[in-house]
Amino acid sequence: MSKIRKYFDKLKPERSSNLKVVALCVLTATTFWVLNALNKDDYTTVVNQSIIFLYNQDEFMAVEELPKSINIQINGNGWDLLRKYFRIQSTPFPIQLEEPSARGYLLTKDLQRELSDNLSPTQLVSIVQDTVKFKIDKIVSHKIKIKLDTAENILSKNFRFVGPIIINPETVTAKGAISVMERLDGKLVIEIGEENVNSNFSKLLPLSLPKELRNYLQLEEQAVQVNFEVVEFIEGSVELPITKRYFPASVTMAENQNTVKLAYLLDEREIEAFQKLDLEAILNYNNRNGEDSTVEVSLKRIPPYLEIVAFDPPNFKLIYE
What does pLDDT average to over the chain? Predict the structure, then answer.
């Protein structure tokens, strides 16, 4: 702009005045041409027509963003087309859906008559796309089971659950879009929000849906009471005598020993019972591994309050004479 001003400043007053008159004439002629062109009829163009879906939102819910416009070809006066193009004084075209979950699309040919009446004074030539797609689900209410997430190691080392985990209430009511409800698969897994629990647990835990589902589902209950008991298993070890079973006379063990070491975990409440237990390490020839000619060590019986950590050695090599 400064360069143009400098150019005019260098011109003689008479010449500069003539150029300004010429520029004004061109601008005036262009304006008259545009206005005259816009006053003419029989123009055709493609514009975006805004739309709005009308349905019972107490019974149905959109699970994807609904289309906001469709492309249409219209014919009419230049001024009318300009207003349509820039959406001046434009209202969305309403599309009424009675059963929106029954079918996820509309054929645009079914909209032509009503849309044509809505476009006056312009005339509808065609709707560019064949269909308008949407995803609207029916709203349902279902009972879902609450489960505690025990996949992570929420208990301290060597601690175990005693009895069942009690959740009250066991089920809660969820309401929302049916397709999203199905993703829950009838259950909601919650976390206790603690680690290394080493004592009996009793707490009211808040319920929370996964972040990606919160816009489509609601829970009627806000919290559940969770209770469980734990017990510590004590580490220990003991030397056990070996008892051979079903060994043929021609089979011996490569290792020349009569005992094995058992490392175990013991329920702290059962120490007295464990002390009275008569344990022995069993080598059962019928359970031998034919590929490497070994037989593993086992116990005659394992009480529920005892967990085997390891035998040392875990197996013995067999020698065939």
Answer: 83
